[in-house]
Amino acid sequence: MTPIYPVYAAGATAAGVCASTLAGSLMARRGARRMTLWLLITSGLILVVALTEVLPDAWLDALRDRVPTAQIVVAAALGYAAVSLLTRREHHGHPLVRLRSRRPGGRHAPGQHRQVRPATQMMFGGVGTAMALASHRTIESAAVAMTTSSMIVVSLLVHSASEGLTLTALLDTARQRLRPWLLLACVSPTVGALVGLVVPLPAHAIPILLAIAAGELVHTALLGLKLALHRNGGRPPQRHRAVAALTVLLVAAPLILARTGGSLIAPDGPGTPAALRDHSTATAGLPGVPGSPSASGRSLTPGPDADPAPTRGPVPSPHESDRRGHHQHRRSHRKRTRRRSGGRTSRRPARRTARDRRRRRVT
């Protein structure tokens, strides 16, 4: 795959990501009656993107840049916990009752308080989604501005639509303002591309930031699934579940195959991610690294003076081979004779006959 990223291509890709996000947002606005279906689909897509794109990229970048993998795990956990802290707030509200209520205490009477945690979770879930998407897109665009390909650009456009749809669904359900967060989601790729072209991010910081964004996206996806279940009393319609499962499967299958198809078979193949190829190339000559020629101190290719491969045993001589064949022939002949005589050989009757003949001659 050939890199396609001068400055004009970076701007074109950022504009395409912005247009894809707006298209996903428009889909959520037009289909407001099917908000449960949109939540199921987009939450599943966000979970797939986080587990098959963002987190593997962070892991492979950490291997390439010699960042400890424990830092990646801790960063993902911190991103998950950050969104969790935002969505754990509980508030109390009052239903619309008359001021001159007959109940003592008015709006503060027993039974008049109710938890509005689902709406609060929806609001903070939308804000957390916008923040996670902004940070993820900034880092992703900065990395893509330096090393990219046409396939990576296509994958960016595809999952940008699902991200815009999820963001709009969460914020509309919570009745929050959409324009500021949607503008942030659209501007962040341009900022990331400019940062990547002008002032590249440190190599060791990119995998950690990607892991944080992955943790945020995973928690946001789980929150969207929970809220979709809450809207229908814990059981969405079977038609919505089937459509959502089919859509997520159709999107997830190509991503998983593209991710694992070449990296698990041939580290230097055309389908291998660049991070894994760079890692295998960088560790090819290091001492102590399994699979490197210098790890064993000798070349992996045998030279012209190398000893031939040992055989399983000594080669028998022609005379010994004939003798073994003769013995095998005699054993097989005895077996055939024993079967014909019902298990008795003809050797003993022949000896008795010769003995009887000698006795007869003596007498």
TrEMBL record:
Highest taxon of source: Bacteria
Membrane-spanning segments: 6-28, 35-55, 67-86, 181-199, 205-229, 241-258
Amino acid composition bias (Basic residues), ranges on this chain: 324-363
Bias-annotated ranges (Pro residues): 305-317
Keywords: Membrane, Transmembrane, Transmembrane helix
Record keyword ATP-binding present: no
Key word GTP-binding present: no
Region (Disordered): 269-363
Protein name as catalogued: ZIP family metal transporter
